[in-house]
Amino acid sequence: MREGTKVTTEGYDEETGAITTPIYQTTSYIYPIGEKYRYSREVNPTVLKLAEKISELEEAEMGVAFSSGMGAISSTLLTLAKPGSKILIHRDMFGRTYRFFTDFMRNLGVEVDVANPGEILEMVKVKKYDIVYVETISNPLLRVIDIPALSKICKENGSLLITDATFSTPINQKPLVQGADIVLHSASKFIAGHNDVIAGLGAGSKELMTKVDLMRRTLGTSLDPHAAYLVIRGIKTLKIRMDVINSNAQKIAEYLQEHNKIKSVYYPGLKSHPDYETARRILKGYGGVVTFEIKGSMNDALNLITRFKVILPAQTLGGVNSTISHPATMTHRTLTPEERKIIGISDSMLRLSVGIEDVNDLIEDLDKALTSLN
């Protein structure tokens, strides 16, 4: 089954014949009929359908749904890491994820090494880790990790490779097929795609994900059935949305690269990107996030994001409508100025999430706002 058919095919409810998954808004189930589900924090039919869907899309043995992307990350790592475990991460990643590892996990006695994205492959060659955790496309500098090469070394070393593929989505990349052990998503972003739901997803082998699911039940990072329904609905248009988003983002990145008010543009589809060749080899599309630096100060950047008419200034991404954020004061505000400097997050950096609007309207919106800068 091809990808476009796979995302839209949902089946039907065998009991009622409903052609969309019902929302089972219940806390519990009558014994013995509902013994499979018992209590909705543990298993809910709507949520289970979503878990099965991400498993299908990622070509995994088992999927699990969570109350948020961070719920997926925390539940997975608290399942697989223990005091004394050695974990490797990279610096350029979502700020709250970075803090989870460098603060919370270290406080639990976990040894956490931090590398630049370009150093990951060399690091795993010289030191054995229990877990290697990477974003397939990093946030916000959009470094592309060579998952096939990394997974090969991890398997040789007996390391678990866990990937956050929020930016790439199952349409542009399938990390499990490329050798990763677990793939995680903030489903609030491109997968749900409408900026109206918070959810997380994970997929991998049945052995690993069964353990993670038990932790999810214990921690209570369980997804609400109505939120699960919204994610299932969003998945149906994932392929057509990503096709438009990939195309729009490429054109916008090329436009920004030539603008005289722009200092730097970060996008894997540009030949100037350090991982362009890797991206061409392992990605089917370069994604919907374009990061750029303007020629100016933090105040100029913050002022710029208020001047758009189509693009919305908001701390989110992956929706049908384009949004723009300022990493230093939004997504990566928990990092110190020194940490942001090491990563390469400048005060004049902006992260644009490209939607499905007409690309000419988006470019016109960017051009008018940038032209208004002194």
From TrEMBL:
One of its GO terms (cellular component) is cytoplasm. It comes from the Archaea. InterPro entries: Cys/Met-Metab_PyrdxlP-dep_enz (IPR000277), PyrdxlP-dep_Trfase (IPR015424), PyrdxlP-dep_Trfase_major (IPR015421), PyrdxlP-dep_Trfase_small (IPR015422). Its cofactor is pyridoxal 5'-phosphate. It holds the Pfam family Cys_Met_Meta_PP. CDD domains: CGS_like (cd00614). Keywords: Aminotransferase, Lyase, Pyridoxal phosphate, Transferase. GO terms for biological process: methionine biosynthetic process; transsulfuration. One of its GO terms (molecular function) is transaminase activity. This is Aminotransferase class I/II-fold pyridoxal phosphate-dependent enzyme. It comes from Sulfurisphaera tokodaii.
